[in-house]
Amino acid sequence: MTIESGRHAAVPLRIARPHSRAAGAVVVLHQAAGYAPQIESWLIRLSERGYLAVAPLLLHRHGVESVDPMERFGGDLTAFSRFLPGDAEVLADTAATLEYVGTEGISPEHTGILGFSYGGRAAYLIATEHALGGAVTYYGNGIHRESFEGNAEIPALAGKVKSLRTPWLGLYGDEDFLLGEGELDEWQAQLPDAPVAAELVRYPAAGHAFDVDQPFGPGMPSPYVAEAAEDAAARTLRFFASTLH
């Protein structure tokens, strides 16, 4: 499977096409560090299941595809947060990506959005701004409580449950170090107020980035939890199969 490089409205894109006519499309939003093997793997996986899969490179304003936070910021999370594009920029880049999907003849109701961590938060935000087929968030911090200290352009999204316009699925590890104590409980209690289907699935033995088989840094263990990763992937594919067709 070949990953194409493209561009629409100044936004660089990575694109994977199905072998036959696309049954729908999925926009894939990367983690804060940028485009990575995780995203490429999902582009291929989705295209193999008949979707046009497109990933915008959200760090393009800095002239990079990805960044090593330890190397560039020495582990300073506040400096890293300040570096990240704010909501207005992410919404603009996603709108351009959705416009590109439209040029491929795929309508919003047959389009989904899938995001991881920083991109998972963005997927939730976009689900409140656009009426799409479905949205999936993997361990997106900064939704129910503020998480990106030092960047006022990435505020908490706690008040947006009632604004959801797109059916949403959240996949979280209960041991996520980027979430506060009781945060998932509080948020889950609010989800029934959403005007569309909204579900939060929790994995008790998993933490942040539970589907990534790479350590966060030298000498650190991998966050990968196979059972959670496999279940989350299966749920994601079933969710899009039911919402995008």
The main β sheet shows up as: 8 strands, mixed
Q: Radius of gyration over alpha carbons?
A: 17 Å
Shape: globular
The total of helices stands at 7
Content-based structural category: alpha/beta
Helix content: 25-40%
Tell me the name of the CATH class.
Answer: Alpha Beta
CATH fourth-tier homologous superfamily: Alpha/Beta hydrolase fold, catalytic domain
Please characterize this protein's 3D structure.
The protein has 245 residues and is an alpha/beta fold. The protein has a single domain, classed as Alpha/Beta hydrolase fold, catalytic domain (Rossmann fold), CATH 3.40.50. The protein contains seven helices and eight strands; from the N terminus they run βββαβαααβαββαβα. The protein has helices at residues 37-48, 69-73, 77-83, 87-103, 118-129, 183-190, 226-243; strands spanning 4-8, 11-16, 24-29, 51-56, 111-116, 134-138, 168-173, 198-203. Strands 1-2-4-3-5-6-7-8 form an eight-stranded mixed beta sheet. The chain is globular, with a radius of gyration of 17 Å.
Brief descriptors of the model:
single chain, 245 residues, alpha/beta, Rossmann fold, 8-stranded mixed β-sheet, 8 strands, globular
